[in-house]
Q: What sequence folds into this?
């Protein structure tokens, strides 16, 4: 099956699939409520549509010979603080998902390689991702290594719907 699966660049016509795959990804490793996922689907679809049109996000889809989409993943360019001799954006991989019956066949690795190749072709020095614990072995096999970053969590904080500093949706 591995050799017969085709990896292609996603288009705006793939938005429903990409949103469905992202939702399934969240369902796989969190216990978020259906209503929260519903709200997230709307927000993600609008965000992804805007970014794909602006060419600041690219996604790839894996398809069977019959045309069934079975996996996907994306990389977006996020703004970072500028420093000497470096771009002011950094690629970050998101929304990796493979349908359960197609896992363990190397499909996610192939999508990751496409995303990494895209980043290299665009001249970036590296790419990041924030993996779910159970997905870490996959990323290590492809060549990712663990980096160290500190985080402070606010467990009692409630989202205010901000999309940018100082602006509300």
A:
């Amino acid at each position: 099956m591995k050799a017969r699966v085709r990896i292609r660049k996603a288009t705006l016509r793939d938005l429903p699939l990409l949103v469905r795959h992202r939702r399934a990804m969240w369902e796989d490793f969190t216990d978020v409520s259906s209503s929260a996922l519903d709200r997230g689907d709307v927000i993600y679809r609008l965000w992804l549509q805007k970014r794909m049109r602006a060419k600041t996000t690219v996604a790839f889809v894996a398809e069977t010979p019959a045309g069934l989409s079975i996996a996907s993943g994306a990389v977006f360019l996020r703004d970072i603080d500028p420093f000497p001799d470096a771009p002011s954006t950094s690629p970050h991989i998101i929304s990796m998902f493979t349908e359960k019956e197609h896992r363990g066949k190397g499909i996610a690795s192939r999508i990751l390689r496409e995303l990494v190749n895209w980043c290299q072709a665009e001249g970036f020095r590296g790419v990041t991702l924030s993996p779910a614990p159970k997905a870490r072995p996959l990323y290590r096999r492809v060549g990712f290594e663990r980096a160290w970053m500190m985080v402070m969590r606010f467990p009692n904080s409630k989202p205010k719907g901000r999309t940018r500093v100082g602006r509300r949706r």
User: Anything to note?
Assistant: Confidence is low (pLDDT under 50) at residues 162-169. The chain is about 35% helix and 25% strand. Residues 2 and 107 are 7 Å apart (CA to CA).
